[in-house]
């Protein structure tokens, strides 16, 4: 039986790709497309907005349809609404929205006590694999003589509202844990002096229509490792989220990540 999914933020850049790819997946049934009532296309057919032709589902705030999972690619306020919708519907939640305040994050963790939640700043297979590779590098370099300087560069489209990316922050969190680093720095200016060892720095580039690119640098004396992972469109995230919805539907309550979904 197909997994019935609701999409929260369905008219957005990601939401439109979820509508398109979800509609062509025989193992999925898109049954609800939620949007903010103030969106210029609110009330329109979600399929038409996504450019795939009429789906027979309108962009709305409510639905009478039953769904097994709700996928959220919206904004912090929308994520809050998605958590409430998922708990009320006793549906699985796939949380992809980034830039969440601590109160929103706490609400997601609380919801995971009663519903299955897949929560990841990137649903991309290659990004999550690169995170694993960076953890291996961090473990290997944590005590290297002369030290390893870790810098995280991220590059996204001009419309992105949060900075740095949730993915960059997650890369830093994973690496810092492995290397015992406690100081996280965002950009540099003035005369900060020589770079201390106990530091990970983040640099956010916002330019054009870049769908997402991360470079993690391990800088040693005399040699450097750089790992770059880049998306050429948004479908890597959408397909990962749809896979997460299939994984989570029917699971026992708990907090899952993309390593669970991808078997990494
Ligand atoms: N985890 C991942 O793999 C991944 C990948 C891409 C983007 N993202 C994140 O997803 C989020 C959305 O990215 P985007 O580029 O699609 O943004 P977007 O601005 O194009 O889309 C967000 C949509 O959410 C809608 N929205 C706002 N409030 C809402 C509410 N209360 N209920 C329902 N919908 C509401 C907006 O109207 C808009 O259509 C961002 O936080 C981004 O960082 C995550
Ligand atoms: O387009 C965006 O916004 C993206 N945000 C994610 C993040 O903040 O980590 C990564 C994928 C693209």
Automatic annotation (TrEMBL):
Binding site for NAD(+): 9-14, 96-98, 120-123
Domain Dihydrodipicolinate reductase N-terminal: 4-123
UniProt cross-references to CDD domains, sorted A to Z: DHDPR_N (cd02274)
Domain Dihydrodipicolinate reductase C-terminal: 127-262
Binding site for (S)-2,3,4,5-tetrahydrodipicolinate: 157, 166-167
Annotated InterPro entries: DapB_C, DapB_N, DapB_N_CS, DHDPR_bac, NAD(P)-bd_dom_sf
Catalysed transformations (reactions): (S)-2,3,4,5-tetrahydrodipicolinate + NADP(+) + H2O = (2S,4S)-4-hydroxy-2,3,4,5-tetrahydrodipicolinate + NADPH + H(+); (S)-2,3,4,5-tetrahydrodipicolinate + NAD(+) + H2O = (2S,4S)-4-hydroxy-2,3,4,5-tetrahydrodipicolinate + NADH + H(+)
Major localization listed first in the record, in broad terms: cytoplasm
Keywords: Amino-acid biosynthesis, Cytoplasm, Diaminopimelate biosynthesis, Lysine biosynthesis, NAD, NADP, Oxidoreductase
Pathway in which this enzyme or protein is active: Amino-acid biosynthesis; L-lysine biosynthesis via DAP pathway; (S)-tetrahydrodipicolinate from L-aspartate: step 4/4
Enzyme Commission numbers on file: 1.17.1.8
Active-site feature positions: 156 (proton donor/acceptor), 160 (proton donor)
Entry keyword RNA-binding: no
Subcellular location: Cytoplasm
Matches recorded under Pfam families: DapB_C, DapB_N
GO biological process: diaminopimelate biosynthetic process; lysine biosynthetic process via diaminopimelate
MF (Gene Ontology): 4-hydroxy-tetrahydrodipicolinate reductase; NAD binding; NADP binding; oxidoreductase activity, acting on CH or CH2 groups, NAD or NADP as acceptor
Cited SUPFAM superfamilies: Glyceraldehyde-3-phosphate dehydrogenase-like, C-terminal domain, NAD(P)-binding Rossmann-fold domains
A GO cellular-component term linked to this record: cytosol
PANTHER family: 4-HYDROXY-TETRAHYDRODIPICOLINATE REDUCTASE 1, CHLOROPLASTIC-RELATED, DIHYDRODIPICOLINATE REDUCTASE
HAMAP family xrefs: DapB (MF_00102)
Subunit (UniProt): Homotetramer.
Family: Belongs to the DapB family.
Function per UniProt: Catalyzes the conversion of 4-hydroxy-tetrahydrodipicolinate (HTPA) to tetrahydrodipicolinate.
Protein known as: 4-hydroxy-tetrahydrodipicolinate reductase
């Amino acid at each position: 039986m197909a997994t019935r999914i609701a999409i929260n933020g369905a008219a957005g850049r990601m939401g439109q790709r979820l509508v398109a790819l979800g509609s062509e997946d025989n193992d999925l049934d898109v049954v609800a497309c939620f949007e903010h009532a103030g969106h210029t296309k609110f009330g329109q057919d979600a399929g038409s907005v996504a450019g795939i032709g009429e789906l027979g589902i309108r962009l709305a705030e409510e639905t009478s349809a039953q769904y097994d999972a709700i996928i959220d690619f919206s904004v912090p306020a929308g994520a809050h609404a998605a958590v409430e919708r998922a708990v009320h519907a006793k549906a699985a939640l796939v949380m992809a929205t980034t830039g969440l305040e601590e109160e929103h994050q706490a609400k997601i963790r609380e919801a995971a006590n009663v519903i299955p939640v897949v929560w990841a700043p990137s649903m991309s297979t290659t990004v999550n694999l690169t995170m694993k590779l960076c953890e291996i590098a961090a473990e290997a370099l944590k005590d290297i003589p002369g030290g390893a300087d870790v810098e995280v560069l991220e590059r996204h489209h001009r419309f992105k509202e949060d900075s740095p990316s949730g993915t960059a922050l997650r890369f830093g969190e994973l690496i810092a844990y492995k290397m015992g680093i406690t100081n996280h720095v965002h950009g540099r200016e003035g005369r900060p002096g020589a770079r201390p060892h106990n530091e990970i720095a983040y640099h956010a580039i916002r330019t054009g229509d870049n769908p997402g690119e991360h470079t993690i640098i391990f800088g040693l004396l005399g040699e450097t490792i750089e790992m770059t992972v880049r998306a050429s469109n948004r479908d890597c995230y959408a397909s990962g989220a749809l896979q997460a919805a299939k994984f989570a539907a029917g699971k026992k309550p708990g907090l899952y990540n993309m390593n669970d979904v991808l078997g990494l």
